[in-house]
Specification:
heterodimer, A: mainly alpha, B: 145 residues, alpha+beta, 6-stranded antiparallel β-sheet, 2 helices
């Protein structure tokens, strides 16, 4: 990764913590058992610096919870490439997340189709150079049914696309890629949880920091992006999810899971309308 | 896994090509974080190809919020290129309780492991505990399985 990327990440990722600066973490000492998160500086609690997990982190857990019928979750139709760049960015994230579902369903032809679509959308965004090798690798490993490797390449494609956009100073579009991927991943997750509800599986939807992060990112986006019809719709509906995902340690009910699914399904349909 | 080893090797080679002083960067710090990660890759951890970093004065901490999922196991690896520096990384849950199940510190690197009891937000607290530099570059990587 290039030095500039690190510095960009660093400014986003790290915030100074004077509030806990007096913590006795002297050399060789054991860490403090408790910190007062309420004393974190305002910027930290505003979650400007949330690490958005890779889709494979969520799908890895779902693997351990059982074997859902992923074929039913898969959206096999290829959505049309939008003319508006914000919508293309959202769709790109969406399609990469779809790739993970196709991997779970172990559908090589679908994965290969997704690999080609990722390249097509990356071209439309001007970042295909960063993604060509990934796209080829996705197709190659799908042919070999090497699913762990396909997952790794899909994770890598997401990272490469976002870095490519950062290099083009399209950081806000890179955030839309993340958001598009998160929405499709959340829709799939809610669908799987709904069909085989358990407290543990529903708990995977407890993602308050991520919701707040995306909410804030949308709020601070350039007006030309926020005025896009699909982006505006997401910005309007995203806060509806917040009360449904529960507080820490509280259960997310079956009804809430269904409500979350309905909201994200509506948003995914706006990003990737079925032709 | 093979690709990851090549990646680590490439970083080491790059470090050797750099002048000994004056060009210390977060990239160099990353090579140590990845060196710390290497044994865990052999244990089945997938290392994310994305990293975080910056520079810090001694005794000043930084926090990163991370969404972690119950059912996964995570290692966070922190590295620095500064000789004799001592760094640390610790993980706290959303209530501020220490949540890691183990941690270690070695020259140039530190790490912490967590098996989240709940899905939700966690705070990663990184610190330069000791260094002879005014500001010390650091880098953080993580893996999961």
């Amino acid at each position: 990764m290039k030095h500039r990327d690190f510095l960009l990440s660093a400014t986003m990722a790290a915030l100074t913590l004077p509030g806990i600066g007096a913590m006795p973490l002297a050399m060789g000492q054991e860490p403090r058992q408790h910190i007062d998160v309420g004393k974190l500086p305002q910027q930290a609690t505003l979650v400007e610096d949330v690490i958005v997990p890779m889709p494979s982190e969520v799908f890895g857990v779902l693997d351990k919870l059982g074997s859902p019928n992923w074929h039913d979750v898969l959206r096999p139709d290829k959505p049309p490439v939008p003319s508006a760049r914000p919508e293309t960015a959202l769709l790109l994230g969406n399609v990469i997340a779809e790739g993970f579902i196709a991997v779970e369903a172990q559908e090589p032809e679908q994965v290969k189709k997704i690999g080609r679509t990722v390249l097509e959308l990356s071209k439309a965004m001007g970042v295909s150079k960063a993604v060509v090798a990934r796209s080829s690798a996705i197709i190659e490993f799908a042919d070999k049914k090497d699913w762990p490797r396909v997952r790794r390449e899909l994770d890598g494609a997401l990272t490469d696309v976002k870095q490519g956009m950062d290099e083009l100073h399209d950081e806000e579009l890179a955030q839309l890629v993340s958001l598009g991927g998160w929405l499709r991943g959340t829709e799939a997750l809610a669908q799987v949880v709904k069909r085989n509800y358990t407290k543990d599986s529903a708990g995977l939807l407890h993602q308050p920091a991520l919701l707040d992060y995306f909410d804030r990112r949308l709020a601070h986006m350039a007006p030309r992006l926020r005025s896009d019809e699909v982006v505006a719709k997401i910005q309007k509906r995203l806060p509806e999810i917040r009360p449904l995902i529960g507080e820490a340690d509280s259960e997310i009910s079956q009804q809430s899971v269904e409500q979350i699914r309905e909201i994200v399904h509506d948003l995914v349909n706006a990003i990737a309308p079925i032709p | 896994m093979k690709a990851f080893h090549k990646f680590v090797l490439a970083f080491f080679c790059l470090s050797l090509l750099l002048p000994a002083h004056g060009w210390a960067t977060i990239d160099d710090a990353l090579s140590f974080a990845l060196e710390a990660a290497d044994p865990y890759v052999k244990e089945g951890f997938t290392v994310r190809e994305d990293y975080w970093g910056g520079d810090l004065p001694v005794k000043q901490q930084k926090a990163i919020v991370h969404q972690l999922f119950k059912g996964n196991e995570y290692w966070f690896w922190m590295g620095t290129d500064v000789e004799n520096a001592r760094v640390s990384v610790h993980i706290y849950d959303s209530d501020g309780n220490l949540a890691e199940v183990e941690h270690w510190q070695k020259p140039h690197m530190a790490a912490a492991r967590i098996v989240p009891k709940t899905t939700g937000s966690y705070y990663l607290i990184v610190e330069i505990e000791k260094s002879d530099r005014e500001r010390t570059h650091w880098s953080l990587a993580y893996g999961f399985r």
